[in-house]
Amino acid sequence: MKQGIGDLTMFSGLFAAICTLLYIKLSFNVIKLRKSHQVGIGDAGHKDLQSSIRAHANFIEYTPLAVILVFTLEYQLIGELLLIPLAVLFLVGRLLHAKALYTANLKLRVAGMGCTFLSLIAMALINIYLYFI
Fold first, then answer.
1. Longest dimension (CA), the chain
2. Signed CA dihedral, 83, 123, 55, 58: sign only
3. What is the torsion angle, in degrees rounded to the nearest 10, for the CA atoms of residue 79, residue 81, residue 126 and residue 132?
């Protein structure tokens, strides 16, 4: 694959697009439950709607940081052998976390947050390191 900011095929664009599609899927889940429960605002006490709203909100709370970190690492030519696994780890974490909220599975939720935090911390530390070298 090509690398670098001057190329037309940047991994960060693909990563951002995948994140966007996942976000829209989570949005549709909320919309579907709002419609079935006839709830316009809030969750009206429906546990499944509460979980869906939190999965959606939690995704958007972490994803902008990941997209920015992936882009800045790619811009600094970090290399796909390091960049892609970290981005995939983030996506796996977000998927596990969302699944955990829908199924009330605490172990899966912890695993999802672990993957999310590990990927974000690693990308942040690499960016800090690259600034000082």
1. 56
2. negative
3. -40
- CA 59 to CA 93: how far, in whole Å? 10
**How far is 80 from 7, CA to CA, in rounded Å?**
14
What does the pLDDT look like over 62-100, one tens digit per residue?
A: 999 999 999 999 999 888 889 999 999 999 999 999 999
Q: Which helix (H) or strand (E) holds 133?
A: none
Q: Where are the alpha helices (DSSP H) in the chain?
A: 11-37, 47-75, 80-103, 106-132
Count of alpha carbons within 13 Å of 114, Cβ hemisphere only?
7
What does pTM read for this prediction?
0.89
Q: Which residues lie closer than 8 Å to 125 by C-beta, 6 or more apart? A: none
Tell me the C-alpha distance between 125 and 77, whole Å. Answer: 15
